[in-house]
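Hey, I'm writing a tutorial for new members on how sequence and structure tokens pair up, and I'd like a real worked example in the thread rather than a made-up one. If someone can provide the structure for the chain below, I'll link this post from the tutorial.
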Amino acid sequence: MKKRALLLFLAGGTIAFTACSSNSNQANNQALVDSLANAKAAVIQAQMSAKNDSIINAKANEKASAMMNERAEGKREERRAERNGSNSVNNASTATPVDNTPATPTNTGKMNTSQQSQGTNTGKKQ
């Protein structure tokens, strides 16, 4: 829309310059050429600026989308950890240590076969 308006403005300016220049001396012709060159340069600059702006906006949107995806993935991981009953961030600091010591035998008051052959009783005193 802006491009069309700019082109119409330039075309109208060009027509106005040609209509007003009834005498064809060298100074008027040079002014017309200069104004047309300036108008063409302005159109090209506006096109390039619009193209560059669209590229910059596309890159910014791409980066913002990637950041939002990373944030969403982090939240998904947190929810998974919460569902599993552990928090992946605090998992190492809140883990309970495992006791690797062997269990001590309990005294049931009965003799096992090796004790019977030795004649020792590990049970209650009689």
